[in-house]
Fold this sequence. Notes:
The protein is mainly α. About 75% of the residues lie in helices and about 5% in strands.
Amino acid sequence: xxxxxxxxxxxxxxxxxxxxxxxxxxxxxxxxxxxxxxxxxxxxxxxxxxxxxxxxxxxxxxxxxxxxxxxxxxxxxxxxxxxxxxxxxxxxxxxxxxxxxxxxxxxxxxxxxxxxxxxxxxxxxxxxxxxxxxxxxxxxxxxxxxxxxxxxxxxxxxxxxxxxxxxxxxxxxxxxxxxxxxxxxxxxxxxxxxxxxxxxxxxxxxxxxxxxxxxxxxxxxxxxxxxxxxxxxxxxxxxxxxxxxx
Length: 246
Ligand SMILES: [Zn+2]
């Protein structure tokens, strides 16, 4: 059974490789995500404009018939008004006729302004189409750049992740949690002591402590300067050896 500190040193070596691979991609993954969101928003806006134009065309296509139907209905109502039995019925028909007139005025008003409205909508649509094309082009560019860069990484990445999973399963949960906690501050959360110093912050480590560490392999030591987990240099894992054994 390997010592916990050895396993942790191996985990740190693997994480260093994973961080490096991640850094190679830079901001590309976030850029691609942002562009995808932007594209969806632009396409939605464009669809709203297209729908308005369709509605406008529908109005123009059907207004004539709608108005004629309304006029016919009004005529029928006007005839009915001669046959009412009381004032209440008479008033009800009057209100219905007024309602039809108001509806017609609205349709006529919309028809009258439809030319200007169509012009505005078409200008908006042209701008939106341009914007969609621009964002789509940028997205294609960034996405293929990302694919190109990460494509070469996939096999490597998979190997590191496999090793990482194996190590993670062998490390005590509490120790790994502590390591992960430190990693939120320092990418290299567990470091070797080199030339009697912490290789994370270069604070000097008393030789007495280093001696102690070599005899107490099961105890976890942290740097008083930076809080990183420390291990002696002989514990440091060589990534190539580690991966060769994977
Ligand atoms: Zn330190």
